[in-house]
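Q: Given only this backbone (422 positions), what sequence would you predict?
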């Protein structure tokens, strides 16, 4: 694996055979997460594909010319032509492998795969999920000198990293951008010394043995596991929703509202998330039609009043979506009046869905005692029914799901574990 500059780009990339080029930056957590995966894969694929890195900040002109807008970005070339889709953000090892495999013959792939050696690493504690709950547990454990690994299928931060503003996290007078708050939490825990394995595939979890497998070859073993995997947004299950997910139907205003400048959107929901996120969407969209199943919004009063005072917003109460389909660039939402059963079609440029969440427990639900809504039951020290397995944050059975409550759970679990391991 070599580092190049703009001067070498033509010779090393355009006039070479198969090349993967990593545009990286300094002070870039996703670049740090990618670096060991890139280096590891260069050892496996390096005889067939050239692995190159280029420092984006020192080669800005080239990055601009190639349309590289964020770090890291991986570009794949074959004989001077760019092949395969670019990878950016929290790049997973499995995504890079899929791209590399598409560039070489099947026999080569087989022989490369036979070289992959399983590894086993032992820790005191594995934390699954690097949202506020997991990050806080990691911080406390690290400060107690307990050897801890933080594992996440995405980049660290959890929901906070995509929340546009947080105004109720103590210690800040002004509202904080969610991504900054989560970045600070993550850096604090990482700088303490917690090992990070992020943007990985968690392929197996054995709660009894306290073992997990990531990226199919790396086994992590520990004395304790903390589950801090949070929640994912509920889907409505209406026809057309799955097909249009990410293609006009979104579950994240912070991620996607910016694409709706002066456009009309439909928002499904009426609780806190729907109201707060709609308020954010009003910065961009020209019109918002909210579809809510009840006769009044269920969000907190202050947020409701602010949203309803905005002339861009119109709420259709006692309505539910029945189906979604595309008409050219528009999304058609078919809605039903729950009282009259009358149906009508709304045309918009996009749809946002905010109708609650479900616990992320699919990898371990069979072993754990859950409440009737599928959240993990814990005792007051955050112990689950499986000895040595703790759970914290939004994934557990509790009344109030906030950053402060997740952080509190993480603190309690870490202190309880530190006492047990002492
Ligand atoms: C739109 C929105 C706005 C919000 N605004 C506020 C607010 O203003 N103030 C406030 O206090 N709270 C707010 N909340 C709630 C707050 O974000 C959550 O309570 C908090 O993030 C919960 O933290 P957590 O660590 O339990 O889970 P999460 O933040 O959900 O993090 C869970 C992490 O686990 C990872 N993960 C999932 N599955 C796996 C797996 N199998 N293996 C490994 N990792 C996995 C995820 O990638 C994620 O990083 C908001 C939530 C939303 C959705």
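A: Predicted residues:
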């Amino acid at each position: 694996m070599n580092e190049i500059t703009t001067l070498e780009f033509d010779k090393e990339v355009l006039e070479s055979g198969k090349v993967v080029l990593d545009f990286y930056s300094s002070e870039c957590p996703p670049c740090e997460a990618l670096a060991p995966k890139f280096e590891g894969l260069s050892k496996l694929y390096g005889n067939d594909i050239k692995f190159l890195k280029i420092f984006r900040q020192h080669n800005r002109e080239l990055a601009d010319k190639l349309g590289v807008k964020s770090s890291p970005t991986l570009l794949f070339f074959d004989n001077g032509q760019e092949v395969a889709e670019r990878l950016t953000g929290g790049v997973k090892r499995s995504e890079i492998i899929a791209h590399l495999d598409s560039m070489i013959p099947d026999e080569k792939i087989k022989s490369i795969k036979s070289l992959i050696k399983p590894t086993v690493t032992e820790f005191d504690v594995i934390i699954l999920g690097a949202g506020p709950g997991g990050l806080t547990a990691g911080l406390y454990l690290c400060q107690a000198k307990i050897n801890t690994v933080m594992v996440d299928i995405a980049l660290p931060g959890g929901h906070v990293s995509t929340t546009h503003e947080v105004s109720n996290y103590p210690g800040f007078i002004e509202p904080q951008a969610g991504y900054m708050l989560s970045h600070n939490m993550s850096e604090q825990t990482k700088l303490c010394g917690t090992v990070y394995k992020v943007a990985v595939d968690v392929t197996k979890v054995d709660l009894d043995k306290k073992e997990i497998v990531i990226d199919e070859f790396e086994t992590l073993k520990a004395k304790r596991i903390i589950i801090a995997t949070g929640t994912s947004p509920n889907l409505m299950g209406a026809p057309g929703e799955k097909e249009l997910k990410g293609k006009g139907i979104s579950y994240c205003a912070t991620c996607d509202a910016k694409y709706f400048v002066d456009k009309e959107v439909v928002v499904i929901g009426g609780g806190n998330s729907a109201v707060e996120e709609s308020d954010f969407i009003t910065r961009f969209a020209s019109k918002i039609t909210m579809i809510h199943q009840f006769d009044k919004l269920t969000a907190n009063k202050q947020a409701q009043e602010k949203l309803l005072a905005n002339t861009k917003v119109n709420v259709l109460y006692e309505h539910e979506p029945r189906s979604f389909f595309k008409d050219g660039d528009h999304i058609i939402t078919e809605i039903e009046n729950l009282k009259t059963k009358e149906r009508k079609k709304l045309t918009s440029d996009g749809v946002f869905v905010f109708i609650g969440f479900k616990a992320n427990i699919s990898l371990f639900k069979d072993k754990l005692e859950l409440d009737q809504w599928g959240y993990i039951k814990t005792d007051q020290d955050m112990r689950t029914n499986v000895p040595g397995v703790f759970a914290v944050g939004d994934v557990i059975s509790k009344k109030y799901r906030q950053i402060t409550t997740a952080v509190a759970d993480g603190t309690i679990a870490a202190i309880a574990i530190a006492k047990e391991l002492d």
